[in-house]
Amino acid sequence: MSHSQVSSRLRAALAGLLACAVAVGLAACGGSASSGNKKVLTVAYGSDYVFIKPQLATKWWHQVARQFEAKHPGVTVKFQPIPGGFTDIVTKLNLLYRSPSTAPDVAELPSQEVGGWASSGYLLPLDKYLGSAPWWKATPASVQAEAQYGGHTYGVSHGENTEMLYYNIPLFKKAGIPVPWQPKNWNDIITAAEKIKKVDPSIWPLWLQGGTAGGADAAQFDGDNFLLASSDPTIYEASSKKWVVDSAGLRETLGFYSEVAKRGLQAPASQLLSPNAIVNTFNFSAKGKMGIFVSGNFTAEAWSKQTCGPCFPAGGKTYGVAAIPTVNGTGHPNVGSTLGGWDLAVGAHAPNPSLAWDFIQTAQSRVNMIDAANWAGWVPPDSRYWTDPLFVKLAPKFQTAFAKILRNSRETPNLPDYSVWATGFGQATGAIIQNPSTSVSSAVSTMKSYVTGQLGANQVTTRQ
């Protein structure tokens, strides 16, 4: 998964230059081209970060390519694998998209960044293709909307992430906490964590990551979940077209971080702020190091025999999952989950858009879509497959639970400046994690200062 950002970007840049050098005389480096009587379709994807294991990413993409090439004997798929973590993928794609000669025909994109690339004219609107796709009709409206920008759809969901609270069943029983567990509010979470700390001080009571090392993707898997379950979940105020940098919801969320940190209930700051924090839960949970942690179904899938990242056959008996409640227990109990994932998009300069779309159609077939969900840790975007045995049997208790909350989950904005807001939010959570004495007001000020400095005072607002 994620590596050092500097070294990863250097490797990515060198890999790109090498790929271009090799491609000279055969095909343009990016963009479909012809080689003799053959057409070349270029496809860019995250080779390390997106799937649970790099080997599974390679297996899946080549599986789709073989099927596609069988249907199109005159076409060869040329891959542009992008190593490194989330920020490495975004950085490399930004470089590729700057020139039509390097832009991929098809790319795997994080949903949070689609608006930026669409607004820059890098992506092709897919509206005219969508009506004939049966899997699109079975995709919930909230998922369809995640790649919409300016009234057009620029990508289709490759797979979705939702988040819940994992809890250690044997540890809960030892601490006298009834299971199955469903906290009614955030205070119930803190109370459970305190009981865990008392019964076994060697355990990390609550894993609540933060900081900026994981990029915009990190916010989706930690604090955004609680912000969306707060009394004011607004990130972007549509009426004023401004980003929210201070609100009751932000203060409640940062207040929750503060309580966890001040009471000594969090995991070590070095772990929570690591660029690998999202995936380090796989091993730590399998080792029984965590009492409660926020994660997606990818953690449970990582334990399965099919992925073994690591193998943890006792995972289903060791951990239960509970929906993240609202701050005071009011409203719908399942609103506390972000909705976001990875999309498939066609480049605006693809010489043969219909061919690129057909590659996506191949990728979105039943088996390919479910394989991607199982190997990357997603819920399939096609709701018909949420109860499909091929999906459910990988991790029965978990797959069903994470699919169930999808319809009530909320997407984070896919607007171009979301990454700026997410970085500011990460600076605020990171400040509290690093120094538990940091006040909520100070954390809010840190966020406000950064976002305002990046976007300008006329682009931010407060809702206090």
Provide structural commentary:
With 464 residues, the protein is α/β, with parallel strands linked by helices. It folds into two domains: 5-160 and 340-411, Periplasmic binding protein-like II (D-Maltodextrin-Binding Protein, domain 2, 3-Layer(aba) Sandwich); 163-338 and 415-462, D-Maltodextrin-Binding Protein, domain 2, CATH 3.40.190.10. Helices cover 44% and strands 17% of the residues. The chain has 22 helices and 16 strands. Strands 1, 2, 3, 4, 7, 14 and 15 form a seven-stranded mixed β-sheet that branches. α2 crosses α17 (353-363), α12 runs parallel beside α21 and α12 crosses α22 (440-455). The longest helix is centred in the first third of the chain and has 19 residues, at 5-23. The two termini are 39 Å apart. 55% of the residues are buried. The model is unreliable at 1-32 (pLDDT under 50).
Fraction of residues in helix: 40-55%
Mean pLDDT: 90
The separation of the N and C termini measures 39 Å
CATH topology name of the largest domain, in short, is D-Maltodextrin-Binding Protein, domain 2
Assembly level? single chain
Number of domains: 2
Content of β-strand: 15-25%
Distinct helical segment count = 22
Q: Rg to the nearest angstrom?
A: 22 Å
Q: What would the principal axes of the Cα set say about the shape?
A: globular
Going by CATH, the architecture of the largest domain would be: 3-Layer(aba) Sandwich
How would a crystallographer describe the biggest sheet?
Answer: 7 strands, mixed
Summing up helix and strand content along with how strands pair, one would put the structural category as alpha/beta
The CATH top-level class label of the largest domain: Alpha Beta
Q: What's the total number of strands?
A: 16
Spell out the CATH superfamily of the largest domain.
Periplasmic binding protein-like II
